[in-house]
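Subgroup meeting minutes
Present: P.N., E.W., G.H.
Scribe: E.W.

1. P.N. recapped why we're keeping a running log of single-chain structure predictions: easier to compare across weeks, and new members can see raw inputs and outputs side by side.
2. G.H. added today's entry (388 aa).
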Amino acid sequence: MEPTPGAGVTSKQGRARGGIMIDTHGTLSTLALATLLGATGCDQAGDGGNDFRAGGIGTGGGLTLNTNQWVSSSARDVYEFNRMGEWHTNSYGYETRLSQIHLPNSPYGPVTTTVGAAAGGQPKATIKPGDELEIRVSGPAPTDPKYVLEGDQLIGMQLTFTVRAFDGIDHPAIIQVVDHMDFEGVGAFYEFHKVDPISGTLLAPLCEQDSNELRMARVFDGLTVNGDTGAMTFTGQAVHHIACTSSAPGKAALYGYGPAELAPVDPMAFALANRVIRADYCADGYPYTYPGNLFGLTDNGSPGNEGTTLPDVLASLDEGVVIEAVWDDFGVLCIGSPRNTNMGREDIVCPTKRFPNGSVAYNWRPPTCETWADPDPTKIRFYSTTEE
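Output recorded in log:
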C-alpha cells in the first residue's frame, strides 16, 4: 500500500533535413484520438498571449503562438535521463546519468538517495515509472510504509546528474523543482531551475519562458525525442523526457495531445500535433516557421469535433483568421496560407512526400486548400489556422 501524505526560417537552401521516426506503425484511429484529448494550456517562449477554448482541445479555434524547437536550448544537457541511473546519450551528444535524488521534505524527513545504490539502512527515494512525476519514498526497514509524493510535495526536490560533455570530463548538473501546476485533463507540470553545484543557489530556469510567462515542463516516461531531426521513439523503458512548454512536445501535451495514452496503441497523434505546432508540413522534421507566428489547432476526432470537415472549419473562422493547412499522419494534405508571412504556398516543396497508400512523390508541392477535396473525410484530420 502506498498512501499519499497530506530562429527565423525563410529559405530551405543549405539546411539539413531529418525525418520523424516512430517505433510503432499504423494509422491513427479516430477512436484512439477521442480517448486521448481533453485539455488546453499556455504557449510559446516570449511571444505573447493566447486565446484558448476552456475545456476544449488544441487551441479550440482561437489562435496561439507556435515554436520551431524540440528542446529548450538551456535544457539540452539533461532533458532526457534514465530514472534507474543508467547512462543515456541524447541527440545533442551529452551523456547523462541520474546520480542522486534529494527530497527536503518527506514523511521520513529529508531524504538523499544515491540512484542505483542500496539504501544502507536509510530512507530511500526512487522515481516511479509513468507520466506523472512521482517519487516513492521507502523507510529504512522493509516493513516501513511506502509513500508516493507528487505535485506540490515535490517542490524543493533536487535531481543531480553526472554529465559528460564534448570534453569527455564528468560534470555535475543539478535541477530543482521550484513550482508545480496542474492542467485539468492533462496532468502535472513542473518548473525546474538549475542549481550551482558548489554554492547550492539557484542559477537559472531550465526552460525558456512561454507566452504566459511560465517556464513549466511536462515529464514523459518512455519517450525519446531527437532534437536535430525530431525523430520520436516510444521506448517503453525508463528514459524520462522533460518537455518544456516552450518546446513542441510540451505544447502538444498542453493542447491535449500527449503521448502517454496513445503510445501503447498508436502514437501518431502526438507526432502529428508536434508537426502542426512546428509547421512541419512535409512530416520530415523540417519546420517552416519560427517562434512567434500565430496558429490554431483542431481536429475531427475529439469529443465535440467528431466528423469536422474543412467546410465546417472554414464556416467557423473568425474575422481575420484563415485556414493554414489540413493534415493527416503524413503531413499536410493542402496548404491555404502559411503562418510564416515571409513565404507563400509556392515556397513549400517536400523533397520526399509519403502517402498513406505507401506511394512516394518527389519535389511535391502541396495543393491549395481552395480547390482541394478530401478523398476520405472519415480518416483523421487536423486543421490548422492562422491570421490573414
